[in-house]
Amino acid sequence: MRTTYFERDDILVLRFSDKEITREVAQDWNTTVSFAADGSVVEVVILEARRAGAVPMELRHDFAA
User: What local confidence, expressed as pLDDT, does residue 59 receive?
Assistant: First the structure.
């Protein structure tokens, strides 16, 4: 998974796969989910991420128990 935050535009992109995007579905006005041909989620884009509460995120660099 790759997470990218574009601070100037307040856009958060969560990329789950390198598969080609074949379909996009708007969940609401600021959230879009993109799918691969096999139906798996490839990417989630959140506009105005800070306002939506998605940023700031807590980053942890721990190991799973």
Answer: 57
Residue-wise pLDDT tens digits, 19-52 = 999 999 999 999 999 999 999 999 999 999 988 8
DSSP letter at 49? H
Quick check: 35 and 25 in contact, CB under 8 A? yes
Domain ranges of the chain: 2-52
13 contact partners, CB below 8 Å, separation of at least 6: 3, 4, 5, 6, 43, 44, 45, 46
